[in-house]
Every structure is written in structure tokens, then in C-alpha cells.
Amino acid sequence: MTQAAIDGALAAAGERAALANRAGGAIELTEVSVRFGKAGREVTALQRVSLTIAPGQFVAVLGPSGCGKSTLLNVIAGFERPRAGSVRVDGELVTEPSPRRPVVFQQHSLFPWMTALDNVAFGLRMAGDAAARERARHYLALVGLSDFAEHYPEQLSGGMQQRVGIARALAVEPAILLMDEPFGALDAQTRALMQEQLLGLWERWRHTVVFVTHDIDEAIFLADRVVVLGVKPSGLRRIVDVDVPRPRSPRARLDPTYQALYQELFGLIREESSKTFDGSRAAS
Fold first, then answer.
1. Does any domain span residue 193?
2. Which residues pair with 236 in a beta bridge?
3. Residue 140 in domain
4. Residue 153's CB: how many other CB atoms inside 10 A?
5. Which of 21, 102, 113, 224 has the most crowded Cβ, counting Cβ within 10 A?
6. E strand or H helix at 266
7. 3-state DSSP call for residue 222?
8. Mean pLDDT computed over 102-119
9. How many domains, the chain?
10. Vertex 177: Cα angle to 176 and 181 (nearest 5)
């Protein structure tokens, strides 16, 4: 396939995805509570969280360990049912997982016996797409891995494996992309490059993205809004708008607004983390 053909196919896919995103991708959580365990020994993972995410927004979910970030993502994905409240996507109640809400995890979930190409094509094949492998090639090109289509996961670096995972998620052309610390296991340089690549993809297609992270800088660099979760109780602490101009490059970190946001979020996370620390110290 020539580069011109790849570019044309990607442009067409981008147009389809953009149209889908304009028509959908809205997420609404209403008074969502999640508890684990049995009566008398329950742990509250989320408490009465209400949140509205508009189509095409990039939202980062930030907070200390144990505040329910991944639980919030799992509820949106349909992996976890709330004990109370509801989650709706484009007005429809979420009751189970859907390929239209793909998740990219911190540790890649690629099939080790499949090549990169076949991993990306897998979801398309399950959906009955007769041209699955050809479309998968387009999405590998989108993440810069055309030359690695026939490589197996063990032959790829950590960053490449994550790019294959992103390509697989994008291949079904979803309006929503859910990401659970997808770059957390990467080295600092690879992580920075992956952040920039993800932003480039989002700028092009404008998926609704919900991105869980522990990293304050990552949250500000990527997101339109940062949702801060707290502990004791585990719930929504604050929503912070990121008023840093787009498109963003690494130089955005020099913006005074960026630096002020970092200090604000650092203070919030420090305050929430201290609650856990103080509680552990009191218990001992």
C-alpha cells in the first residue's frame, strides 16, 4: 500500500470518527456510589459522584492511590455496576461493557500469539468486518507502526505495545476512549512522546477521552478538565478547567497558567494524600 493510499484511508477514517463524535460521546454519572464487600465489611470506592462530560472533551481523572480512579473508569466502561446511581452514555444506561467504549490499560492486553496487525484487527473481525486486516493496517500507520505489522508483542518495546493497544481501540472508531494509566509503566522519555502522540490523535479526531493518571503534569498537559477525586470520603473533590491554549507542545509547561494549575492540583493531591497517611498513622 502506498503512502498516499494510507493517508487517504486515514483521512476517511478520521472523517467517519469525527462525524460519530459529533453525534455522540456524552457521558453522565448521577450520584454514583460503588462499594465492595459484604454488609458490615464494606469498603466505599466511590461515594455519590455526579459528573457530566461533553462529547469530544478530554478529561483527566486525578487523585491519590485508593481514591477510586480506576473504579470510576470501570463504571463508565461497564465492568463494574454501581451500588447506587447511574451511568449513561448518549442517554443510554450503561449496564455492560461495549466495544464502543474501548479501554487502554497500563499493562498492554495484547494477545501474545498474534502479530501487531492481527491484534488490531481482532475487534474488527469480531464485529464481522470483512476488511479487518486492511483497516488494521491503516490504524497501525496512524500510530507509526506500519513497519512492525508482522511483529509479535514480545518483539516490541513497551511504548510500541501501547501504541498497538491504542490502534486497536481506535480501529472500531469509537466516540469514547477510556484510558487507565496507559503510560504509567513507560520510561520518562517514552511517556512524554506518547503523550504528544495521543494529543495529536485527539486533535485530529476529537474522541471523548477519560484518562486516569497519578501524574499532575500529565493531567494538565493532556486535558480540558481535571477531575480530582478525594479519600474519606472517596468522591469528587473538585473539577479544574485547564485554560492552557491548544494545540499544546512541551513549551506549554512554561505558561504561567500551567504552572499555577500545577501548584493548585499539587496542593489538592497533597491534602488528600495526607488524609490516608494520617489515618494509617492513627491506626498504628
1. yes
2. 229
3. no
4. 19
5. 102
6. helix 256-283
7. helix
8. 90
9. 1
10. 150
Alpha carbon dihedral 11, 14, 18, 21, in 10-degree steps, equals: 170
**pTM of the complete model:** 0.87
DSSP state of 127: T
Instruction: List Cα–Cα distances, 248 to 16, 56, 240, in angstroms.
Output: 25, 17, 18
User: For the purposes of burial, counting CB atoms within 10 Å of the CB of 122, is it exposed (0-12), middle (13-18) or buried (19 or more)?
Assistant: middle
DSSP H or E segment with residue 164: helix 158-171
Classify residue 107: in a domain, yes or no: no
Per the CB < 8 A criterion, the answer to whether 162 and 103 are in contact is no
Rounded to 5°, angle at Cα 144 from 143 and 149? 95
Q: Cell 491548544 maps to which residue?
A: 246
CA distances from 77 to 94, 97, 263, 276 (A): 8, 6, 31, 27
Report the CATH number at residue 193: 3.40.50.300
Identify whether 151 is part of a domain.
Answer: no
pLDDT, position 186:
85
Cα separations (Å) of 236 from 27, 62, 121, 227, 250?
16, 10, 37, 7, 29
Q: Which of 265, 268, 262 minimizes the C-alpha distance to 230?
A: 268
E-state strands within the chain: 27-36, 43-53, 58-62, 84-89, 92-93, 103-104, 176-180, 208-213, 225-229, 236-241
pLDDT in tens, 4-63: 554 555 555 555 555 544 558 999 999 999 988 776 777 888 999 999 999 999 999 999
d(CA 80, CA 94): 10
Q: What is the mean pLDDT of the chain?
A: 87
- Cα 161 to Cα 13, 131, 140: the distances in Å are 22, 23, 11
- Residue that is written with C-alpha cell 481482532 in the block: 122
